[in-house]
Amino acid sequence: MNLKGVLYAFSFVMLFANTVSAQDNKSVKEKYNFNYGWKLNVGAVEEAEKPGFNDQKWTVVNLPYAWNQAEAFKNDIRDLSTGIAWYRKTFQLPKDSNDKKVFIEFEGVRQMGEVYLNGTFIGRHENGVMAFGFDLTPYVKPYPQENVIAVKTDNDWEYKEKLTESEFQWNNIRFNANYGGIPKNVFLHIKSKVYQTLPLFSALGTTGTYVYATDFNITQKKAVINVSSQVKNELSIPVKAQLKVNVVDMQGKEVASFLGDSYTVNANEKTDLKASKALSNLNFWSWGYGYLYTVTSEVLVDNKSVDKVVIRTGFRKSKFEKGMVYLNDRIIQMKGYAQRTSNEWPSVGMSVPAWMSDYSNSLMVKSNGNLVRWMHVTPWKQDIESCDRVGLIQAMPAGDSEQDAKGRQWGHRTELMRDAIIYNRNNPSILFYESGNESISEEHMKEMLAIRNTYDPYGGRAIGCREMLDSKTAEYGGEMLYINKSAKHPLWAMEYSRDEGLRKFWDEFTPPYHKNGTGGTTPQNSIGAKAVSDATAYNRNQDTHAIENVKRWYDYWEMRPGTGERVSSGGVNIVFSDSNTHYRGQENYRRSGEVDAMRIPKDNFYAHQVIWDGWVDTEKPQAHIVGHWNYEKELIKDITVISSADAVELFVNNVSLGKGTQSKRFLFTFKGVQFKPGTIKAVGYNKSGKQVCENEIKTAGQPFALKLSKIERPGGTLANANDLVIVQVEVVDDKGNRCPTALDMIDFEVKGQGTFVGGIAQGPDNYIGASSLPVECGVNRIMVKSTETEGSITIKASSGSLKSDAISVKTVKTDLGKLSMNLPNENLPSFTEKGPTPATPSFKKTRLPIAIARATTDSNQADAFKSYDDNELTEWSYGKGDNAMIEYELEREANINQVVMKLAGWKSKKYPIRILVDNKKVFEGSTPLSLGYVTLDVTPTKGKKVQIELLGKAKKSDAIKLVEVTGKVDQAGLKEGGETIQRLPIIEVEFYEPIR
């Protein structure tokens, strides 16, 4: 062997020796991935908890794995399989772990989990939502002996708590998709006898480590970083301990290292050790800017590190006042989605790899959403950490169904909120704690606030609940379907759009020709205890679904920050991705998503990109042409362009069709456009006539070939029998353009180190698990799962005479040890495309409110102030005669040009009114319908007194079609049934003058 070869061999030997040495040095790691090497049996089994039980015939699985996950989107939520399932695993502790503490952490089981170690019952967890853990130290066998852990799970819809026989309110057959067993990650922690506790309160009574920032100076990029860590001493003697904290940025650079004060921790005592330091040149976490730091807190005993906790977190400043939300001193209007906490995918349910959570959640940000309101239970840690990385604000609930609770069920709620706050208080993306899906009593709200103040006093998070409009305790609130305004705590709509539509349905002019409103109402619609009698208003195609979502958002945009003292702080659209929950059409799942279940965008997705661009005001004008440009010859249809420009011009093959008719600010309609093959282009202009945006669609040719592409984990697909690759198939023409009307059936074949999982489409069983399924609108997706063997996966797609295509995926070797060194979210990058919080204002004031000094009327005078008291649960109404009138005296003379009102029956009643300013008529006509408030443009008139008169009876209209799940309507001032109304019921009124 020559010298070069000798040196190469020597280098290899040294590299191998160093690798082994490194493994030995970290053989006793603090935290292990405990997901690999489990066995599963569905069904009750006697003595399965015993170490000697024969489980050779059980199914080998890697977690997370719900035993019924293959039913996701195949079955109605009510028909998801339930019952007993057992999970078992054999493992050894690492070398040199003797005399160590051993804890197990489950991110969650559904619904109940009983844990046994070496045949001994360790404990039971029953709420089906939250993480929990146990101290295994007294029961675990030291290395090299083997241990057997067994977990019995039960996901019965009617499961009752063992001690109280009380059902869990959120184990709900309508909302909380039931993926049973162990659908989330499991970890093993090995610690010294002096250690930082885990944030698992219910079972362990411990609170873990709390990292938070104070004393912010956003412009100078400064803050004080604080670490408070609960430390327990399980030695028989006291020790003198202190915290050492290291802060490392996303580039791997250490930005700080500091020590806390020394404390004596007595034997068997728990105490909080603290350390803090003022840091500068910080990058603050923000919307679309998931900047995270690695904060490591170490316990030093006699200057020697004995325990270490690593936390990925971010620092951001928040404030909630004047009806608005502030993030890093910039006002942000909430724009986003109410998403089911299960956040599921076809065939695999919620148990997806961490990178797929990032992919899904980042799409919300890319649609220009800034908030996800999880429903109706606390999301699992993987989704919470994912939102940290992608820069998506979260509203984190505890657990609820549809109403306040009492007795033991209220105890369930408070315990879950406490545990969820302790477990998730280091995640910067959480800005709201939700105390209930629907209104709770003021006393219950006080209990929730006390829990927040006890366990997360410095996290900068508001706690509140839906419908807490006049609460003196809640720090935010908001309705479900309607718009609210406030000058005090922020109010944002928690579900404002419920319509449904398959991605497959472009419009009524494109195969399969889905006319708006068709799709049926069937007795199987799972809404409450009975079906909705008529849900046609929900069953839309892509055209009308996108348009309707823009119309619904308009009310919130119109009352955004900058439009007065009382403003709307936004709202969330329900849902983001199609969901395996209750539904109202012929499909057996919810189709309200802006993306389908495989996260393929619908037109709604692009509509929101346009109307939600910016923190409050539009910051980058955009345009989107609704639909496609591949119609039948000479077809004529109305074309809609969604744009934030001030005017939009439409071109077909470069021939102008003129400017569109603008409505609801963002909608531009072009009537009777004739299809001609080629291009259709929308050009947007600002008020000065300058072009600011454009969007163009080209006609695709005849279907010619299939085109495959892949979406996979950053850094490569892991060979762990659990990672997934998303494979997209498109039908394209001979130039590679997608054919938007193609519905071809595609046959898939998977070879190599992967297994076919499948996708979803309209058809039998929704094609769940089928290796042949159709494209819809020319595109579809499937998933392929890796095996445990490193290698290559080949996916081939074919379809009749179309040219086939194939794609390959390389899988990457990973640590598959039963105590794996590689954590599920390791090395996943952050989404930072939107950049840090801008220093500029987020809006420009559009008008000035004029305060009301007093009101006079000859009916119900004592209630007159309720029409301007900033409380939407009070109102004034004229109670006698037909000549209803009220006069408002303003605090000063002003040039009134707009009157804003919220009138009872806002979505169904039109009131004929006259408005006078200092006895001069400035408006006469009927009030329009709305989701709450109406803005009336009046003849600009200077004055100090404003009179509002009712000129006749209110007229009923059903133009706004909302099927309300709870049966609750906009009842303010309405008698039972909503047909009779008191005369001129004013909930809130406001007067405005233009900016000088």
Structure description:
Residues 215-316 form the Glycoside hydrolase family 2 immunoglobulin-like beta-sandwich domain. The protein contains eight helices and 57 strands. By secondary structure, the chain is mainly β. The chain has six domains: 28-206, Galactose-binding domain-like (Jelly Rolls, Sandwich), CATH 2.60.120; 207-316, Immunoglobulin-like, CATH 2.60.40; 332-503 and 537-620, Alpha-Beta Barrel (TIM Barrel), CATH 3.20.20.80; 637-691, Immunoglobulins (Immunoglobulin-like, Sandwich); 705-811, Immunoglobulin-like (Sandwich), CATH 2.60.40; 847-994, Jelly Rolls (Sandwich). The strands form 13 sheets. Strands 48, 49, 50, 51, 53, 54, 55 and 57 form an eight-stranded antiparallel β-sheet that branches. Strands 3-2-5-10-7-8 form a six-stranded antiparallel β-sheet, with no helix packed on it. α5 (407-424) links the parallel β27 (393-397) and β28. α3 (354-366) packs across α4, α5 runs parallel beside α6 and α7 runs parallel beside α8. The longest helix has 23 residues, at 3-25.
